[in-house]
Amino acid sequence: MRYQRAPRAGSAAALATLCGALFPVAANAADQQLDPIVVTATRQATRANELTSDVSVITREEINAAGQSTLEQLLSRQAGIQYTANGGPGTNSGVIIRGASSNQSIVLIDGQRIGSATTGSAALARIPLDQIDRIEILRGPASSLYGADAIGGVIQIFTRKGEGPTRLNASTGYGTYGTTDTTVGVSGGTDLVSYSVQAGYLDTGSFNAIHNKSDINYNPDDDGYRNSNLSANFSVRPAAGQEIGVNLLASDGSNQYDSNDFSAVGADKNYTNDQLLESYSIYSRNRLNQVWTSTLRLGTSTDASKGYAGNIREYTIRTDMDQASWQNDIVLPIGEALLAVEYTKQKVSGSTDYTVTERTIRSLLGGWNASIEKHRLQFNLRRDDNSQFGDETTGSASYGYQFTPDWRAHLSYGTAFRAPTFNELYFPPERFLLRR
User: Any idea where the domains of the chain sit in the sequence?
Assistant: First the structure.
């Protein structure tokens, strides 16, 4: 079950039973000789057959074979996930995991949280598939690992990495509505360094999002979209167990849409939304001894939009999210422990005058997971101190039993909460009334 309470952050609890029958360890396990390594479910590299969570992994090979053109469409092919969109390519869209709304699940890129602090959602429509190496989907409450808003689950996107001899890749295509899609990149790596740079450009004339001519918002023009994007990853390993690296993803796009002005005059205007999505981070992963690995990560993400009616700018809105985390993985005689601290600062700016424009979240979290013969166990506890709402504690516990290499049953319980967005707290209601 899920619930929210106001005015403090809401809470949710989910109980997953045996589901009436056993289920596969991972959707892809039967097709692979080895179970994939998954990070999102425990925040530690763990084989899928040792997890007690409902996790799916989408590999680069599956992305190529899927035939989908957008990230939302690709995700909607997974069990328990649906998506909504307001129109054609690049328009506002959201992903629904297990019935939770789009602002009740979180999105990570290479460990960095992204999204708008005003709407509470991430701009999935602006993340090109060509930039993605793999996707991990964690279903169910995960605030005990990732904090506020992880009620429905977590989607973590890993951008392309390099390994082996230097490789060049390039592709281009042309399709319906005058669509062109081009990408080019280089990647490679040795025992000392690895690198990858990918760049892409998409342009489409698209179609008219409103077909009903009797609709007061009908505009006969096509609602096109263009996007330019870049990802880069570089890491160096000066010694065994020591790694320093940087991750980058930037996507800049513009989409046309039909009127949000509820009048015949407004329907004749050409409305455009320009949106910039960025995520940058630097990390240092160090094996301090045989049982202790430390990972320090610093980064920032940006979600910035500008709206135009013809040549007149109607609004600007921007979210900047500074993030820092220090995670310690400790191998114990039985299982592995997780101890971490996190700091997040969210700041909003733009044409809307919010009463409060920033907040900070300081977090402490711990966990333990283990595989003991056929038994699988995981426990997590997290404390979030939000400068607006005070403290919130979440926890989770799960147990699984491995009947065969391919079949396992598990029982899990977890709590989660959602923090109100800046729009829900401070957006001036009179502004909405004036625009109507």
Answer: 12-435
56-60, 263-267, 349-353, range with the lowest pLDDT: 263-267
Distances (CA, A) of 417 to 3, 104, 136, 156: 8, 8, 21, 19
Distance CA 398, CA 275 (A): 40
DSSP letters for 131-153: GEEEEEEEES--HHHH-TT-SSE
Tokens of 208: 């008219």
Secondary structure (3-state) at 434: helix
3-state secondary structure of 251: strand
Tell me the CA end-to-end span of the chain in Å, nearest whole number.
36
Phi-psi region of 406 (alpha: psi -120 to 50; beta: other; left: phi over 0): alpha
Question: 201 with 245: CB under 8 angstroms?
Answer: no
With contact defined as beta carbons under 8 Å apart, do 123 and 116 qualify?
A: yes
Average pLDDT of the residues in 96-109 = 93
Compute CA distances 414 → 20, 111, 257, 335, 396, whole Å. Answer: 20, 21, 40, 20, 4
As a whole number of angstroms, the distance between CA 243 and CA 283 comes to 8
Q: Residue 192: is it exposed, middle or buried by C-beta count within 10 angstroms (0-12/13-18/19+)?
A: exposed
Q: Alpha carbon 162 to chain centroid distance?
A: 22
CA distance 372 to 378: 11
DSSP 91-108: S-EEEEETTB-GGGEEEE
3-state secondary structure of 176: helix
Out of 212-226, 354-368, 408-422, which region has the weakest mean confidence (pLDDT)? 212-226
Choice between 112 and 84, residue whose per-residue pLDDT is larger: 112
Angle at 18 between CA 17 and CA 22, to 5 degrees: 155
Longest pairwise C-alpha distance within the chain: 71
Question: What secondary structure letter does DSSP report for 436?
Answer: -
Q: Which CATH architecture has domain 12-435?
A: Beta Barrel (2.40)
Distance CA 200, CA 183 (A): 4
